[in-house]
UniProtKB/TrEMBL annotation:
GO biological process, one term: transmembrane transport
Protein name stated in the entry: Lactate-binding periplasmic protein
Keyword field contains Signal: yes
Organism name: Pseudooceanicola marinus
Subcellular location: Periplasm
Length: 374
């Protein structure tokens, strides 16, 4: 009898475990980026590990590769339900996401990767107009990340403004286009996924991008010179974008679990994209014979001043293009948040785990997940 009872208890326990596993819900997730890019291995793969832990097994994931959905198709994939959680780049859709577009217009202000990701996260979560436009778009926002400071990746040496004049440079957005035009270059709108082909065919002479693109997009085979100059960071991202129907179907507890998992993964990606990956790329670039050098001091000074002056242009453009009467005030608020998080990042010695916790304390812990994203 004792043996029978013991057998029944084991069977019951196994049955409960099976039921819990069977009840777990797998969400379809997609980074939209190639395997070498930080948003793949250091954003979505960690998220896939964190989510079951944070949800106590309630939520799992199924990862979809770029053969199913790439960055260019992410909007449609989220809005049609093909993807539950995807990596959306808002600058691809400025007319539909003007508040994100405004933040993206300030890309040249970026210096510290962790600070920029945190600043945009706090700004977006607490901005009523931002939340409304995201809702109208059919998505829910769960944080941002940032690259390192962009550099000039070219085939010809660049040291002064005169060296830039006449070059055709791949631009990832309007602020970079303004920068190029200001210094006499021609900005060319090319998807980051097509940079290698455009450069190999001579359509462009180089790219304004993270040095990590040398590895992520094989540019190490084409680039001969890297010029370090203040070009801001790419932080206008919605790393963990949830399809609204998916979000609406989740319990409050599972929504909070997703936010915790996303907050950790966002910091992981920023650490990789903004710090670790650039260092790896730098080392491999030098081994490949690529020249890496600082721009001439007068060029650095001119670029730094242009980034400050461009904030006015960003406000004016948003006010005119999107009929945003308070654009100047929004720019001022965002710059304040950049300064706040730069100070925090410095205080925490740019420590990833410490910044992850601070973002949770300062932003996500204050969110009511019963209504957020509704």
């Amino acid at each position: 009898m004792v043996a029978f009872k013991k057998t029944m208890m084991i069977a019951a326990t196994a049955g409960m475990a099976f039921a819990a596993t069977a009840d777990a819900r797998d969400l379809r997730i997609a980074s939209g980026a190639p395997p070498a890019h930080p948003s793949n291995g250091f954003l979505y793969k960690p998220f896939a590990e964190y989510l079951p832990e944070e949800s106590n097994g309630s939520l799992g994931t199924i990862e979809l590769g770029t053969e199913v959905v790439g960055l260019g198709q992410m909007k449609d994939a989220l809005q049609t339900g093909l993807v539950d959680v995807g990596n959306l780049l808002p600058l691809y859709f400025p007319a539909e996401l003007p508040n994100f577009a405004l933040a993206g217009e300030l890309s040249l202000s970026g210096r510290d990767a962790h600070a920029m990701g945190a600043a945009l996260t706090e700004y977006t979560v607490n901005c009523e107009m931002c939340q409304q436009e995201l809702s109208d778009f059919g998505i829910v926002y769960l944080g941002s990340g940032s690259s390192d400071q962009y550099a000039l990746l070219t085939r010809t040496p660049v040291s002064t403004a005169d060296d830039v004049a006449g070059l055709r440079l791949r631009s990832g957005g309007a602020p970079y286009a303004r920068w190029a035009e200001h210094f006499g270059a021609t900005p060319v709108s090319v998807s980051v996924l097509d940079t290698f082909e455009a450069m190999s065919q001579g359509t462009i002479d180089g790219s304004m991008a993270s040095i990590g693109d040398l590895l992520a997009f094989r540019l190490i085979e084409l680039v001969e010179h890297v010029t370090l100059i203040p070009l801001g960071t790419y932080f206008s991202t919605s790393n963990m974008t949830v399809a609204q129907p998916t979000w609406a179907s989740l319990s409050e507890e599972d929504r909070a679990a997703m936010a915790r998992a996303a907050n950790k993964a966002n910091a992981d990606m920023t650490q990789r994209w903004g710090y670790d990956f650039p260092q790896i790329a730098r080392e491999q670039a030098l081994e490949a014979g690529i020249t890496i050098e600082e721009a001439a001091p007068e060029f650095v000074e001119a670029a730094t001043q242009f980034a400050v002056d461009d904030r006015v242009a960003a406000a004016e453009i948003s006010a005119e293009r999107f009929d945003m009467d308070d654009a100047a005030e929004r720019v001022e608020e965002f710059v304040r948040l950049i300064e706040k998080w730069e100070a925090i990042s410095e205080e925490l010695d740019h420590d990833k785990d410490a910044i992850t916790q601070r973002v949770w304390d300062e932003v996500w812990s204050k969110v009511d997940f019963s209504t957020y994203g509704s």
